[in-house]
Amino acid sequence: MRVSRVQAEENRQTVINVASRLFREHGFDGIGLKDLMEAAGLTQGAFYKQFASKEDLAAQASTRALESAYDRWTAATTPNMATENPPTAHPEDPLGPVIGFYLSAGHREEKADGCPIVALGSDAARHGVTVKASFEAGIRAHLDVLERLMSDTQGEEFRTKAMAILSLMVGALTLSRVVNDPTLAQGFLDTAAAQARNMVTG
Questions:
Q1: Which residues touch 14 (CB under 8 Å, ≥6 apart)?
Q2: Which residue ranges form the domains of the chain, and what is each CATH number?
Q3: In which residue ranges does the UniProt entry place its DNA-binding region annotation (predicted)?
Q4: What is residue 83's predicted lDDT score, i.e. its pLDDT?
């Protein structure tokens, strides 16, 4: 049966969404096309009608994962109009909302839905320019969020601080995931949270 253009596009988006989660959980090379397409409810033969290669899918899935992560950062920093009337800023702790969810034990355990920079950063470094371009765009978007949060209080220094804080947060989450000791893992998160706040207010 021939698939309509609308259905074909829906199938393509499903594959990208599924891949964005499975790649974060298993790595780009940790899951084959057959298993990936089965998870999307499609046959392996349908893959090459939708994507030029696995590298093409990796780039598109990376973009989707990074967009999802950016949306979480944005949601965390957007005042809830229903509970904050009027919405209030927190100049004494401008990064509080992002730090609260990013450097948390819950986020550490979110392998399939967590930060793609942590989950796939080292894999992306070994891939071609298209995958790296997806990550670069996503990283710049994350920096933009941090810059916006600090811009009212940091003046010209906020760009450099945003880069340092993102590096600190990504590194801490990575380290917390690769150790067995839960106390050490939490220590990385707590220490990074304190240092990130100090970099803004200090």
A1: 40, 41, 42
A2: 54-201 (1.10.357.10)
A3: 32-51
A4: 46
Q: How far apart are CA 144 and CA 77, in angstroms?
A: 12
Contact 192, 167 (CB under 8 A): no
Give the percent of the chain with pLDDT over 70. 89
Model confidence, pTM: 0.88
Rounded CA gap, 82 and 12, in Å? 36
Q: What is the pLDDT of residues 33-88, one digit of tens each?
A: 999 999 999 999 889 889 999 999 999 999 999 999 999 999 988 765 344 443 44
Q: Is the Cα torsion angle 96, 99, 104, 110 positive or negative in sign?
A: positive
Q: What is the rounded distance in angstroms from the CA atom of residue 63 to the CA atom of residue 57?
A: 10
Structure tokens given for 169:
């947060």
Query: Which structure tokens are listed for 200?
Result: 């803004």
Q: How far, in Å, are 63, 142, 144, 159 from residue 163 at the CA level?
A: 20, 9, 10, 7
